[in-house]
Each structure stands twice: as structure tokens, then as C-alpha cells.
């Protein structure tokens, strides 16, 4: 099956339900009866496994071309699951351009567990070798990055890490499996915040971890079973419903984002515009080679002061001022207070996140309405 078909049919055969239901029913049961003590069922307790979660995990694995997938109750739960492969005394290499929540774990949680860490420039894969230590065990990065939208060479990072025997973990939330499949490029573990594009409707929180390694896959299942960080049956059902339209949604997200980015490039009140689909983007050629589309995220800097940027964000009407991203509706985020609010101003500036930066999650509304909304907000300052 091809991508769009897999997202609709994998794990959802009507024959799997008692009444040939085309849409899998919600199995809202905490526990399941055993036929006998000698006949242990596939599903016995929903913290361990549930039919809705099993179907969702089968789809996740299929879309990422992986053998094993585990669904979690949030994207950060999936990130924490990957990081739990590390033990006291190990060293993590974390990309310097990374989501603020992941950085918060790196800065505040891992040191308490005796895990060392340092940053590397993922745009220069050779820096992995420069920063690796004898106790380095893992490399973690994302692409496109949040919120700078830099695109990293996944295959090159995988090669550098593999030469040193390091585990590679990538957050593929922004690209989604519709645009990029990191396992095919040599990555060991893919994580997602399925809250975003995979569910696509801003109505459910979730995460996922996908791998081709049998040992890691078995460990991830045992980790979820032990930690109890799994999603509810209803959350899985909602996400499964959302995934069905991922292919067509991403086509529209990409098309709208390209139009928005090109409009902003020509607006006198917009400063730097970050979007991989623009020829001026430093990673445009890499993105064109590595991705099947340039994504639905656009970041730009307001030409003016911090107060001007805040006014633009608050003046938008079609774009809603809110955290998160990847839903059918367009959102504007303010990284200083939202995605990277846990960082100090000095840390944000060092990572290229000025107080005039706004992050747009471009939805699937009419592109002309989005452009008109941005124009009126920019003209308000």
C-alpha cells in the first residue's frame, strides 16, 4: 500500500470487529476476561494493551516504515521514553536548535538522574564527533527545527552517530511521516507529538515512538507498561480518525504555508522569514532533496520592536493566538512566552529566537483569508 491508503486501511480491517464496522469501535474497557488461565488473551488490561491503541500503533509503524510503534499519552512522554534508554553516567548530545520542552528536560531533569549532556550544532553533523565523549550514548535532534525551521541532514547525522556507535533519536513532529521518513535514512528512533499533525484537529494529546530495532521496540513496550504513560482508548480512536486525512491535510498545509511565506517576504513590516520552501532559506536545497514538501510552519520576525510583535500577534483574527500547532486551524505562537518560555532571554537570543519572532502554524483555511489577516495585523503597527 502507498502512504495515503495505509493511513486509512492499516490495522482497521472491518473483519477485526464483531459486526464488520468500517470504523473501529471504541473499546472503553479497563480490563478483559480471560478464557482460562491457560489461554492468556492478547488484551488483558488497557494500561498494557487495548484494541484501539494496537490499531493506532500499527498505523504509526506503517507510516514511518518501522517494525515497532508505541503510543504515549503525550509527545513529551515519548521523548522521555527515548531518553530513559540512558542511565546514570551516560552522556547525551542534544541539538542546540531544539524544542523548549525537550531542552527543559535536558537542563532540569537529566542532571538529577546523573546523565550528562552537551549541545552540538546539528546543521554541521561533523560536530557530533567533536563533542562526543567516551560515555556518549545518544544523539537527539529535530528537523525542521522549532521555531527556526532549519532543516538538518538526517542521513549525514545518522552516519556520523553510527560510526561512533551512538543511538540516534529524531523528533519528526514538524515534518510528519507524510514528508520525511527518518528510519529510511538510518535513524534508530523516531518520536512524535501526535497532538500536532498526526491527529490534526487540536482535540487530543498524544505521542509516539517508532523504531526498527527489535530490542528497542520490546523495551519501549515494557517501559510504557511499567510507567503507565499510555493514551486512553478514546484518545487513540480520535488520533486514528485524524491520521486518515494526514496526506491530504499536509498537501494543503504545505501549499498555504508557501503562499503565506511568499507574502511575508514582500511585506515591509516583516523582517526575516523562515520557511524551507523559500529559495532564500539556507537549507532550501537540502529540504527539497530530503522532504516531500516543505511543511506547514512559517516563522517570521516583525520589523520593529517587541511591542510591535506582540501587537501583531494580538491583532490577528483568523490566526488564533494559542500554543501548539499542526491543527486544521491556523495558530500564531509567541516563542518567548510559549514554546521556549522556560529559557532565559539570553538562551533564546543565543539560539536565534528574538522577542520579535512569531511562529505561524498555517492551517487549511483559504490562503487568501490568511494573507489578508496577516496584512491587516501587520498594518496595525
Q: Can you tag this structure with a few keywords?
A:
12 strands, alpha/beta, 5-stranded mixed sheet, 381 residues, 7-stranded mixed sheet, globular, Aspartate Aminotransferase, domain 2, Aspartate Aminotransferase, domain 1, 14 helices
Give an account of the 3D structure.
The protein is of the alpha/beta class and 381 residues long. It folds into 2 domains: 3-243, Aspartate Aminotransferase, domain 2 (3-Layer(aba) Sandwich); 246-379, Aspartate Aminotransferase, domain 1, CATH 3.90.1150. The chain has helices spanning 3-9, 51-63, 75-83, 100-109, 127-131, 154-163, 176-179, 214-227, 233-243, 246-265, 284-290, 306-315, 345-350, 367-379, and strands at residues 68-72, 91-95, 116-120, 136-142, 167-171, 189-193, 207-211, 270-274, 297-302, 320-321, 331-333, 357-361. A 7-stranded mixed beta sheet has the order 1-7-6-5-4-2-3, with helices on both faces. It has a 5-stranded mixed beta sheet with strand order 8-9-12-11-10. Strand 4, helix 6 and strand 5 form a beta-alpha-beta unit. The protein is globular. The N and C termini lie far apart (51 Å). The relative contact order is 0.13.
